[in-house]
Amino acid sequence: MEKIYNFINGEFLPATSGLFFDNLEPATGKTYSLIPDSDKEDVELAVQAAKKAFPVWSNLSNDERSKWMLKVANGIAKRMEEFVAAESKDNGKPLKLAEHVDIPRAISNFEFFATAIVHYASESHHMVGTGVNYTLRKPIGVVGCISPWNLPLYLFTWKIAPALAAGNCVVAKPSEVTPYTAYLLCKVLDEVGFPKGVLNIVHGLGHKTGDAIVRHELTKAISFTGGTSTGKAIASIAAPMFKKLSLELGGKNPNIIFDDCDFEEMLATTIRSSFANQGQICLCGSRIFVQKGIYDKFKNEFVAKIIKSKVSYPEDPKAQLGAVVSKGHMEKVLSYIALAREEGGKILTGGERVNLPAPHDEGFYIAPTIIEGLSFDCRTNQEEIFGPVVTITPFETEEEVLRMANSTDYGLSATIWTSDLKRAHQMADQIEAGIVWINAWLVRDLRTPFGGVKSSGVGREGGWEALRFFTEPKNVFVKY
Ligand code: NAD
Questions:
Q1: 457 CB under 6 A from ligand 1?
Q2: Atom of ligand 1 nearest to the CA of 146
Q3: pLDDT (tens digit per residue) in 121-165
Q4: How many A from CA of 319 to the centre of ligand 1?
């Protein structure tokens, strides 16, 4: 059985305990590799390595750091096929999704921040006749990055790249559910001779390894993406230690469809925004609100298309949905479908596990599920399911749909479909979300602020926001 190793101070190491735990392939339900069961001893080694590396890394010019990061981007690109296959195997997502989305984006994350840092400038504030303030932006030191399983390398590198570009040294933990591409990234770091100790990757469980990263007195900033309850637990530890915190948490995003939208474009995009990556994208529009005039047409055409969509093993080129990430997660999603039934929801399509023939007969597959007839404030419509499950709800007026859309604790993203410009802008203004797409979904410009409001998080990633997060401003005043 293949073993995954930690990467600390440029060396591949097992956990100091010598223990490993199983890494399952969602497509087959079978163990296919072993993950180091790291604890605080391993995190200590990683933090000390990062601390030692910091003076040299932070004193490189932006240009030199940029060059190192571009070498990593090229190193991933050279092993493209291997990364794509690994991401799909580890997560259960269709191979073509990993090929077109996950791995290209991980490369872009390194390229984007490697090139951003060479253009980064800090502010100055002139006081006429008095003097001038200039603001230095210093790297923080050792920072912790913790990421989830749904877009494994994509989200892992989305944190690591700006942290490194800004001159920090990093202790990072990928999700224990999908550790493999982070391990491959370590092979790339090794191959390109990346400076030792600058990026340390420690594998393990959240409550052990992740917790140790958060609690360590030397990790001065924590960038976390994951569930809202985990974010709360992390904040309760990190806030009293006065750490900088960036929390990207759960969502329950509304997809609001008005009568006057471009129907065909809306329908094609809504299929993606509902079920891409088996609905396991924090930005998926899981609550679909449709204006009454087109409700029946939408329902019929949406259901007709989804009934035909193919749930299959990830390597199947025709697979539209692959496996969900784990048995536990599959059970959670199925329990929400059962709850929806109890709450009076009508399952229009899906609603059950899909059984594929061997060798995928123990894989974690769920049919894409569309539910109608639920009230906007029931649990199914308020709690994050994070699977291939959407609800559809009719509405008449803007006020009504805004009230329903804004009724959850979450506020990550929203999508609005209308050809009425005024209405689009007014809705965008009033919707409680950090990200709004009008007549589009998941169009990403890496320069834009990314993050949510309410229980969807604190802080923003992306562009200068990320570089600001990973630096401390120091204002200097010079008197004339
Ligand atoms: P999770 O919170 O269970 O785990 C995320 C990471 O945190 C993992 O690496 C895990 O090991 C670690 N962790 C768990 N407990 C910890 C603790 N006590 N201390 C420190 N680290 C700990 O989330 P998940 O199930 O991996 O991911 C799904 C969630 O992520 C969903 O809620 C989804 O909405 C959210 N998500 C949000 C965004 C966003 O940008 N807002 C993006 C993707 C996913």
A1: yes
A2: 9
A3: 999 999 999 999 999 999 999 999 999 999 999 999 999 999 999
A4: 26
